[in-house]
Write a structure and sequence with these properties.
Oligomer: heterodimer
Largest sheet of chain B: none
Radius of gyration of chain B: 19 Å
GO biological process, one term (chain B): sodium ion transport
Number of helices of chain A: 11
Distance between the termini of chain A: 63 Å
Radius of gyration of chain A: 26 Å
Keywords (chain B): Cell inner membrane, Cell membrane, Ion transport, Membrane, NAD, Nitrogen fixation, Sodium, Sodium transport, Translocase, Transmembrane, Transmembrane helix, Transport, Ubiquinone
Shape of chain A: globular
CATH class of the largest domain in chain A: Mainly Beta
CATH topology of the largest domain in chain A: Elongation Factor Tu (Ef-tu), domain 3
Structural class of chain B: mainly alpha
Strand content of chain A: 25-35%
Strand content of chain B: under 5%
Protein name (chain B): Na+-transporting NADH:ubiquinone oxidoreductase subunit E
Number of strands of chain A: 19
Number of strands of chain B: 0
CATH superfamily of the largest domain in chain A: Translation factors
Structural class of chain A: alpha/beta
Number of domains of chain B: 1
Largest interface: A-B, 22 and 24 residues
Distance between the termini of chain B: 13 Å
Pfam family, one (chain B): Rnf-Nqr
Helix content of chain B: over 70%
Order of helices and strands of chain B: HHHHHHHHH
Number of domains of chain A: 3
Helix content of chain A: 25-40%
Membrane topology (chain B): Multi-pass membrane protein
């Protein structure tokens, strides 16, 4: 009995004593003091040691985009940080930032843990864009089995200036949704029943933010148009993988509902040159390309524009009439939709095959494909296939601009 | 040579932790990709071993050893079976202390360690240092020298491997051997080299 008591006492005293000693030392060595973060030499924020820079900026309403939610993979939260308080780049940042970025003190805000005072430089438009703005949904409609167009009325006082190719951040509140309650148009109801998407349900108990490209045309001034693809789980894994949290919430919106947006942000823009432009899109990669094409044609550009768009079958093809009309109205615009698996009932007379194959077939007849500029937006698989095709065509990476949804 | 000097050399070379006893290989291989990180690991190992072995010696002698409680009239009490849990506690506290010191004074090394510094808590070479100390009945001075010697031996081995692996950047290796594969081969070759020290010790 004595031995049990003594043994327990020895261990307890040893562990408690060491813990107390460490806590005291920690207070001496790493004081939990307030820090000063200066943003663009204009705003001073108070922060605590050990907090992430992204959290500090977001708490102050400075909407640095972070599509991956702060896990250091999307590389959107780049800021220039100077001062001893930023520490050295983490191993996670080395994969995303180039050597020249690191020399220029560029850091990922989500990976920067504050250790002292520091000065941050963010793009001026982010500082002026402010935090989230509550807007109203004007209309929604289904474009394809998994793609929905959502038009949002922006408030009068919010600056509506945006450059084609920009994106905005959408914040979904905590919610729960049973997919049976969604109204799916009869045209797509069969696809939904067959795939079992009606059986899905999703719940989220925190605010979640994601970035979506704007598909607005010049005539949509004062409004933001989004093409939202519902992120459904891979077939057969419906029970383990939940559907996309923000895209599911966006699918449940109806006209008149409130939605919180911030932005616009982005660095995927039309270059001010005189070269011919080739746009290649797939899925909801439609959105920024549609904005760019409408804006360029609206300015009355003389540059030649060709648009290749890949979809699986005619049901997945949307805005097709709009681009056909544009191509008859403008001599310098060509529209080439390509279906990879046209359904028997589609009566399809257009190009068949994957979009990169159609691009190869068309552009290898072009007199100088290496002299064009290429703008790509679509799923990562499509982007890598198109990049390989462009390399075969001899196009320098300098002339290729793309947005692969932050993958 | 004095006894302590011989003990230091023997701990560093003859009983080299990673290359002769194959202890602590996980951090040895993981942190030897660049010489800077390897040197940092070596310094940290030397520090942790140099502190924990004498500390554990004190804990063992005055709290856990078979006759530690004889002065209180309890000569039959033997708490030595508690040495594992006590040693691990002391090691964990020392590593935590080291982490705080690095965070405060050498943030660059702290960032280079990343997740590996907390892993030193359960590193086998460090626990082995304390267990050898008990098994071989070292005195306090011997424990300190043994700890520092093992740490220095580990630092030497990991710095050597780090330097060789940097040179390998220029080597045209078969694809399957790149990275960890060739590191294992290198470790084996270095271990053969260190076996010579054991022969020298045996010949004396």
């Amino acid at each position: 009995m004595m031995e049990v008591l003594l043994g327990s006492a020895v261990i307890v005293v040893l562990v408690v004593g060491m813990s107390a000693g460490l806590l005291l030392l920690r207070r001496r060595l790493l004081p939990d003091t307030g820090l000063d973060v200066s943003v663009n030499d204009a705003v001073h924020l108070a922060a605590r040691r050990g907090a992430t820079l992204l959290g500090v900026l977001h708490d102050a309403g400075i909407g640095i985009p972070a599509a991956c939610g702060g896990s250091g993979t999307c590389g959107l939260c780049r800021v220039t940080v100077t001062g001893a308080g930023a520490g050295t780049p983490q191993a996670t940042e080395r994969g995303v930032l180039s050597a020249s970025d690191r020399r220029a003190h560029v850091r990922l805000a989500c990976q920067t843990r504050l250790r002292g005072d520091c000065a941050v430089r963010v793009p001026d438009d982010i500082l002026s864009a402010g935090g989230g703005v509550v807007c109203t949904v004007a209309s929604t409609r289904m474009l394809a089995p998994l793609i929905r167009e959502i038009v949002v009325d922006l408030p009068q006082e919010h600056p509506t200036e945006f450059r084609a190719g920009d994106f905005m951040q959408v914040t979904a509140p905590p919610y729960r949704l049973d997919f049976r309650s969604l109204d799916v148009p009869t045209a797509f109801a069969d696809a939904w029943e067959i795939s079992g998407w009606r059986e899905m349900r999703v719940a989220s108990d925190a605010e979640v933010t994601r970035a979506y490209s704007l598909a607005s045309r010049p005539e949509d001034a004062g409004r933001a148009v989004f093409n939202i693809r519902l992120a459904v789980p891979p077939a057969g894994r419906e029970d383990t993988v939940p559907p996309g949290i923000v895209s599911s919430w966006l699918f449940s919106l109806k006209a008149g509902d409130a939605i919180t947006l911030s932005g616009p942000f982005g660095d995927f823009h039309v270059q001010p040159t005189g070269r011919d432009m080739v746009f290649v899109g797939g899925g909801v990669g439609m959105a920024p390309l549609r904005a760019m094409i409408h804006q360029e044609l609206g300015h009355g550009t003389q540059r030649h524009i060709r648009y290749f768009y890949g979809a699986r079958s005619a049901a997945d093809l949307f805005y097709s009439d709009e681009f056909t009309a544009l191509s008859t109205r403008h001599d310098n615009f060509g529209w080439t939709p390509a279906l990879s698996e046209p359904a028997p009932g589609d009566r399809w007379h257009g190009a068949t095959g994957f979009v990169h194959e159609v691009l190869w077939a068309e552009m290898s007849r072009h007199p100088a494909p290496e002299e064009c500029e290429y703008y790509l937006c679509g799923p990562p698989v499509m982007i890598s296939a198109v990049l390989a095709t462009l390399e075969r065509l001899g196009v320098e990476p300098l002339f290729i601009f793309y947005d692969d949804f932050g993958a | 040579m004095t006894g302590l000097g011989a003990l230091f050399l023997s701990a560093a070379f003859v009983d080299n932790m990673p290359l002769t006893l194959f202890l602590g290989l996980c951090t040895f291989l993981a942190l030897s990709r660049s010489p800077e990180a390897a040197l940092g690991l070596g310094v940290a190992m030397t520090g942790v071993l140099g502190v924990t072995v004498p500390l554990n010696h004190l804990v063992y002698t005055y709290l856990l050893a078979p006759d530690a409680w004889a002065w209180a009239g309890l000569p039959e009490i033997d708490l030595s079976y508690l040495s594992l849990i006590a040693f691990i506690g002391v090691i964990a506290a020392s590593v935590q202390l080291l982490e705080m010191l690095l965070d405060r004074f050498l943030p660059a090394i702290h960032a280079a360690f990343g997740v590996f510094l907390p892993l030193l808590t359960v590193q086998c070479a460090i626990l082995a240092g304390s267990l050898f100390m008990v098994e071989r009945s070292y005195t306090l001075a011997q424990s300190a020298v043994f700890g520092l010697g093992s740490g220095a031996g580990f630092a030497l081995a990991v710095a050597m491997l780090g330097s060789i692996r940097t040179r390998l950047a220029y080597a045209d290796l078969p694809a399957g051997l790149r990275g960890l594969g060739i590191a294992f081969v290198l470790t084996g070759l270095m271990s053969l080299g260190f076996a010579a020290f054991a022969q020298m010790a045996a010949a004396e």
